[in-house]
Amino acid sequence: MRPRDRRARHRASEPADSFERGFTALGVLARNGVQVSARIMDLASGRELLAIDDYVVMPTAGIGTVLLLAEVAARLDDPDFEGLVILDREARDNVGDGGIWQHLQAPSFPVADLAVFTAAAGDNLATNVLLREIGLEKVHERTEKLGLNRTALLDSARDQRGPDDAPQLSVGSMRELAWLFSEVARGEATSPTASQRLVDWLSLNMDLSLVASAFGLDPLSHRQGTHELTLFNKTGSDAGVRAEVGVLRGPRAGVAYAVATSFSDSDLLTRLAVIDALRTLGNDLLEYVH
């Protein structure tokens, strides 16, 4: 099932009672010049719990690498595509931003390991090597097969973006991203085995600094969950961008959520206000599922 394709429109639905604090916090950001988009849905019923301009296409930074990972996960279903094939890094892949491979001595890793680096550490070097192997066109084809019209990985990771480069690493609609993660959680994105690979990779994500900071999980060890909570998520951080998409399950319920903010990152107080609002939304999510 694909998300319905509608024309983008300004909308902020009344939230479920348990999401009033997050709704208010995001509203304060919007009144202070931050562009906000969000969607939260109940995982079991698909019921909308919160929607704020969820059709608007937002910059999503590293979240777009989920589309690359989806293509890699699907290819691993093909016995002719070997996840242990070794890929070498090249000078053109180097980028001095996030990730750990750039600090390691090893010049090569298997495809499946690079997927783990990308999901767990937002590793830009691993992303670029994978993308060179897979091809951006194939990622776009996978995105279309998934039924996504307003979400895309636009480019490789770069230290600086020139006039001939895409202005963002990725963009996305929060409605589409929340829907995609709900499909992954149900095992219905491409195939059950490919969906489970995505869950396995994304459950290793070490960045719990935004929405997920409210969940009390160990950033370095939460794959099995604690206190009846399980999470898989992906964050996107860049200058003036903070975004997160994920699935949180607890003893009472499960939710798929997506939220993105775009702002003038000219002072620390603005950035901290954005992060604080995202954590407030995380508190509401935790209360709903637990």
From TrEMBL:
PANTHER family: BETA-LACTAMASE, BETA-LACTAMASE-TYPE TRANSPEPTIDASE FOLD CONTAINING PROTEIN. This is Beta-lactamase class A. Residues 40-260 form the Beta-lactamase class A catalytic domain. GO terms for molecular function: beta-lactamase activity. GO terms for biological process: beta-lactam antibiotic catabolic process; response to antibiotic. Coiled coil: none annotated. It comes from Paramicrobacterium humi.
